[in-house]
Structure formats: C-alpha cells, structure tokens
Design brief:
The protein has 78 residues and is mostly loops. The chain contains two helices and two strands. Strands 1-2 form a two-stranded antiparallel sheet. A hairpin with a 2-residue loop joins β1 and β2. It is rod-shaped. The model has no long low-confidence stretch (mean pLDDT 88).
Amino acid sequence: MVYRGHIRDGRIELDEQVRLPEGAPVEVTITPQPPAVGEHELGPTLYERLKPVIGIAKGLPPDASINVDHYLYGHPKR
C-alpha cells in the first residue's frame, strides 16, 4: 500500500490519516520533483562553462580557427 506525504520540520507527515501498527516496518522513497523551467534551472551557458579557458591558447597559427581540421587531423587547408 502506498501513502503519500511530505516533510515538515524534519518529520514525515502523511497527507491522509493512517493508523499503522506500532513497530510496523516501513519503506520511505523520495520522489524527486521536476525543477521548474527557468533560466537558473537549465544550468550555466556554454560561455559560462568555457569562460576559464577562453583566450588562453598561445602560439597558434593565425588561421587556426578556420583550418582547425587541418591542424588537428591533417585535412587540406581551406
């Protein structure tokens, strides 16, 4: 049998009045609530995640961004 409830002041409160025998074994499963859709719940943006490494590469060829496949994999230059 499943009873639903919530936590209040660190205690489990059931939503309905239930009479359980003293010492009855119980199992508590936390049901995660889906986060509300909003900007903060989606996590950091790609820029925010990569901000620590943006601009730290030194000594790259001037056309590195255009010919990245050439420098990484040997493909023909564009």
